[in-house]
Amino acid sequence: MAEHARFEKLVADAKQNVTEISPTEAAAKSKSGEALIIDVREKDEWDEEHIPDATHMSRGTIELDIEEKVPDTDALIICHCGGGGRSALAAGNLQKMGYKNVRSMAGGLKAWRAAGLPTTK
Question: Phi and psi dihedrals of 57, rounded to 5?
Answer without folding.
Answer: -145, 100
